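B., you asked whether I could sanity-check this one before it goes into the benchmark set. Here's the sequence:
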Amino acid sequence: MTIFSCRAGTSLISHLRPLVLAVFLLGLPNSLWAQQAQSIVPSPVYLSIETKTETERFIVEIADEPTEREVGLMFRVELPQDQGMLFDFEEDRNVTMWMRNTPLSLDMVFIDRSGQVVRVAPNTTPFSTDIISSGQPVRYVLEINAGEADARGIRAGDKVLHPLIEKNTPRN
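And here's what the prediction gave me:
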């Protein structure tokens, strides 16, 4: 029984080449995004959050370039409990986020220019395109694993400390 036959003078590889190329090209954008997401280097400095009861610390990756902010934690399948990503939007503005292509549920901590937490959006829905808004102008967003904000007592009014925030905080 013949499953696949080729004309005389052609090979199976020459018939499969267009299919292989199409599969490669279709998979390329996601693999490029995934590669970009994995290439952001963690900051060597801890981010600290002074809650009402104690100081919580996270090792953070900084997303301060447009492409880094666009990709964020997309395509990540794990995030250590003590790590997160700090987004710097370079100005105070209403920030909207979503969870497209993000398989992890996250807590989003919205932070103003001075480092004050203004809102926590807990337990976001993986892969959702629903808009998650800061609710007021902020400069930073910290993404951490879902449930971490509640477990660590992180609330609006808490103070976030990191050299990036301190460098950009207006002086009186």
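One thing to flag: The longest strand covers residues 83-93. Otherwise nothing jumped out at me.
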